[in-house]
Write a structure and sequence with these properties.
The protein has 135 residues and is mostly helical. The chain contains three helices and two strands. A two-stranded antiparallel sheet has the order 1-2.
């Protein structure tokens, strides 16, 4: 039987370093989602643009496609962030976000299951982990 791993310096669940690590992990997960959605949308839209542009002008260089791809990446990521913020504000106004007591006595923000655009609200919380509850 193995001994459970020991914590350095007596760090426990109330250690501020755990809160910092958790918030960093949430933020990283949120940004990974933004990047993944942006890349997928960019690839689909750039492929469609490239196909249509080659149908119109077969001698078209790659520069217009490159510019379209860069602009699409910026616009899709911006759209996703703005839409997540709007979904968060709407969820707050419509009471889709509730405070529930945690085991340690803190009040945590919970998003109800029937919230429209729930994944955008969760994305906004992941990008802004301070909204999830007190440290």
């Amino acid at each position: 039987m193995r001994e459970p791993p020991r914590r350095e310096n007596g760090a426990g669940p109330r250690d501020p370093r755990n809160d910092t690590r958790l918030k960093s992990a949430m933020r990283a997960r949120g940004w990974r989602k933004v990047v993944l959605v942006t890349l997928v949308a960019n690839q689909v839209l750039t492929a469609a643009f490239s196909y249509l542009a080659q149908q119109v002008d077969p001698a078209l260089t790659l520069m217009p496609t490159l510019v379209f791809s860069c602009a699409t990446s910026v616009l899709v990521s911006y759209w996703l962030l703005v839409d997540a913020r709007k979904a968060w504000n709407h969820a707050k106004e419509q009471s889709y976000i509730r405070s529930e007591p945690a085991e340690n006595g803190d009040a945590l923000q919970m998003v109800v299951d029937h919230c429209p655009k729930r994944w955008l609200v969760v994305l906004h919380i992941e990008l802004h982990p301070d909204l999830a509850g007190p440290p």
